[in-house]
Every structure is written in C-alpha cells, then in structure tokens.
Specification:
The structure is a homodimer of 282-residue chains. Helices cover 71% and strands 1% of the residues of chain A. Chain A contains 15 helices and 2 strands. In chain A, a hairpin with a 2-residue loop joins strand 1 and strand 2. Chain A has a two-stranded antiparallel sheet. The first copy, chain A, is mainly α. The radius of gyration of chain A is 18 Å and the shape is globular. Chain A has a single domain, classed as Farnesyl Diphosphate Synthase. In chain A, helix 10 runs antiparallel to helix 14. At the A-B interface, helix 2, helix 6, helix 7 and helix 8 of A face helix 2, helix 6, helix 7 and helix 8 of B.
C-alpha cells in the first residue's frame, strides 16, 4: 500500500517542489489507511480467499480512496474551515506549507485520485469506479456533509442533521470503499447492497465513538486533544443524546454491522473492522 | 451551453442550498465560455461543417471545461491566494458565501466536471476525456502553474518561469479544450498535435495581452481595475520585456496561431478566436 501511494505521487523533487512535497507530507503523515483496508478486506471476502492474484491491479482504487481522504483532511483543517493547527500530532498541511499551497495540494490529490482510476484495465469497470468516487465526493456525499457541518457550527442542530453530516462526511467514502470492491469484483446486487449498509453503519458508529472519546477519552486513544468539539461548541452525539444513549447507539450499530456480514465466508477483515471500532469505546 | 450548464448543476434549492447556490453563482456570473467555444469550434472544424448532429452529446465535455475553469477562479480568488474581492464586477464567491463554502464549491465543481464526463456514451472516449481533463488540472498543468505563480509572487522571476506559469495556468485548459474535441471526433495524431500547439500559442498570447491591458488598458476592456498586477508586484510580460517587446511577442504568437489553422477548412471559429485576442491589443 505504502509503495503504491509512493509510486502514484509525483516525486517531491519535481517542479513545483513545494506542491509535491505538501501532497506527500499529508499522504505520509501516519494515516491508518482505514479506507484501503476496508476496500481490500471487502474484496478478499468477495473472492473467498486471502490470496489476491496480481494485487497491484487493486492499487489504483485503494490509493484513490486514500488520496480523496487526504484531500478532505487538508481542506477541512484550513483556517477558514476547522482551523486545525495539527493533524496526527504534526503541523497541518497549511501550517507547514502555507494556506495557498495546502488548498492546491488538496485539489491536486482529488485530481490524482481520478487520474489513477483511469488506469484500471477494464474500461467499463474503470468508469464505474470513477462514478463511485465522484458520487462519494460530491455535494450529495462528502463535500455536502462537510458543507452542512460548517453551516451548522455554533448552532443547535437536530439528531437528524447530525446523522446526515456523519453519513455523508465520513460514511460516503467508507461506502465507496466497499462499492469499489464490489464493482471490481463484479459482486451481485444484493451482496453490494448489504455491504453498502455495512459500511454506512460502521461509518456512523466510528463517528459516534469519536464523539464519545472527545468527551471522555485521552490524547493517546484519540490521537488529538480531547474536548475539542466541546470547546468548538459542536453538536455531537453525546451532547444531543447523553453519553449513555450515545454509547448504546454505537453498540447497536456495531452489532447490526456484525450481523450483516457474520454469515459471509472469509469475513475476517470486516469483522475485525467492527471489533476495532468497538475496542475504542470507553 | 447555458441550458446544459444549468442541467448538470444540482438545483439551488437542494440541500445543502448554500453550497449549490455558491456553485451556480460562480458558474453563472458572466463568464465568456471561452473554453467551451474553443472546444466546439475545434470540433466543428474537424467535422468540416457547421451542423453538429446531436449537439447535446458534446455538452459533457463543454460543461466539464467550464466547471474546471470556474473552480480554478473560485480557488484563485480566495483570501490566501489572490485575495480578489471581485470577479467580473461582482463579489467573489468567498465574499458572497464565505471562504469555507467557496473552498467546497470549487472542490465540488472539479468533482462535477469528472462526473459528467463519465456520461459520454463511448467508454473508451469517456476515459480518454477524463485523462485529458485530469492532466490539464494536475500539478503538471493548471494546479502546477498556479502553485508556481503563488510561490513566485513578490519575487523577481525570469521570463522562462513566467512562460511556465502562463502555459500551465491558462494554457493547459485551453489545450484540453482542443484535445477533447480531437478525442471525441477521433482526429488524426498530426492534426491533434497542430491544434495542441495552436491552443498553447493563443493561451500565451491571451495572457500577454491581459498583462499589457493591465498596464495600459481601461476597466471596460479588462473587466477589472487595471494596474492590479503592478500593485501586487507581479512579474508580467511588459514588466520583464518592456511594453513594445511584449506587444511584438503577442503579435507573433497570434500570427503563428493563425498560420497553424489557416489552411484547414471551416476554421471560422478558430480564426475568430485569434482575431478576438488581437482586437484586445491596445
């Protein structure tokens, strides 16, 4: 995965260097590669075995997911959006390279994600993958979720709006991760729908757990200072539902997620995904 | 063209409204549609007649060009980049909708451009078009040119760097306009190369004329207050070469452009394109 990301990114010494450095800085800043892992885990499950032949042919989709995710983090951290000085314990892209370069680095990573998807051999599958990733990014996906998040900040919002934000901002790209696996494998429609629901459930659960940790967690678990949402006056699940009910909601979503895939053979990575989120729950 | 742009954009009353309004505001703010015109003019010329059958099948590429161009203007105008309060005599996107929404509107227009290209019927052509537009946007194209422009601001730069900025920042998308026409028509390689050179020449000429107008033009011709480059301490062709030599360079580029297409039948739009730039020269 790391090799493939490196291969697709333009070398840092190529002109204009600062821009290529900024892209690489953010891609290689300790991301957990959760989306590529979900994509590859889903593909393995569909395939029914661990040994994926010619793994490199899955790398365009795996890397595209990571590039889009990184672009969204760079733009979210900008002073005019979340104004986050740090990301994963390091200076944010705009702190390190300046706001202008950070904006362009995000744009360039979106562009790069699409560009590498055109390299998928089967043209029908390639176009399908590009449709999946653009839908996930669009105003009806990630960008829409981020817009509602911005427009809702410092306002009291309903649980439905919060659900919308999380389903779109976090869920859309997780959904794309399993959809890409289904498209490339050629999964049956009903399997694709089940897995789509799985991804939306875990996306929502992940976000609720993150909100809970922001209230009661520590820097070690969270990877950032807790209490930020509270200080930013952000509506969160614990704020709207109370801590206990938020916890119960997350647990139910994780149980539902598990039930959706428990009978599928070779579901190890997906089950582990569910457990990983569950283990973060305090 | 205007109908097609409207059709592809999400309605302004769809949630989140502010984001869709911001996208529409910038797309429908009096743009001259120079890239779609170049694209359609090139296609007409390749076809050898004025009557394009089923014109609507060319609209994905025509609109994609305009969406990418608009996205670049929104992001260029941002406070951290050119900090331009106005565009075409109206408040810039970020002034009207806030910086956060403007950043997302630009991201969404890039995404939309790619999304609509996937609608082109012939899958091979669709992928080819997506490759052309991502190449034009990439760090080796428009985004790279913009990055060098930012990194060069308030610095003394060489004529080669200025040429690089213009070839990439303005030229890359004009080049994509003719490349898309060639790809969809299925033009022969040598014709495509000639037209590619034509587009780079007129892109450079357009930029030099713009620089000259910034020194000696009026608000009416320029569509914005002249002298901005000078006040921003920007390196321009007249600043580096002197007014007379800059003018001669533009004239030569326009002559070369004309010579590249003068013997092609049905070249009206392209010749008019050259003349339109020439007429702006004071």
């Amino acid at each position: 995965m790391e090799q493939a990301l490196d291969k697709y990114l333009t070398p840092a010494d190529e002109y204009p260097q600062e821009l290529h450095e900024a892209m690489r800085y953010s891609v290689f800043s300790g991301g957990k590669r959760l989306r590529p892992i979900l994509f590859l885990g889903t593909y393995e499950m569909l395939l029914g075995r661990k040994n994926i032949n010619r793994l490199e042919r899955l790398m365009p989709a795996a890397c595209a997911l990571e590039f889009v995710h990184t672009a969204s983090l760079i733009h979210d951290d900008l002073p005019s959006i979340d104004n986050a000085p740090e990301r994963r314990g390091m200076p944010s892209c705009h702190v390190k390279f300046g706001t202008a370069t950070a904006i362009l680095a995000g744009d360039a990573l979106i562009t790069k994600a699409v560009e590498i998807l055109t390299e998928i051999n089967n043209k029908k599958v390639a176009l399908n993958c590009i449709q999946i990733i653009t839908k996930a990014m669009s105003t009806r996906g990630m960008i829409g979720g981020q817009a509602v998040d911005i427009l809702s900040s410092k306002k009291k919002i309903t649980i439905n709006t919060l659900r919308y934000i999380n389903l779109k901002k976090t869920g859309a790209l997780l959904q794309a991760s399993v959809e890409l696996a289904c498209a490339i494998f050629g999964a049956e429609e009903n399997v694709a729908i089940t897995l789509g629901n799985f991804s939306l459930n875990i996306g929502l659960a992940y976000q609720i757990v993150d909100d809970i940790l922001d209230e009661v967690g520590s820097f070690e678990i969270l990877g950032k200072e807790p209490g930020e949402d509270y200080r930013n006056n952000k509506s969160t699940y614990p704020a709207l539902l109370g801590l206990e009910k938020a916890k119960k909601t997350a647990e139910k979503l994780l149980r539902d997620s598990y039930n959706l895939v428990k009978n599928m053979p070779n579901n190890d990575v997906l089950v582990e995904y569910v457990n990983m989120i569950k283990e973060r729950l305090p």
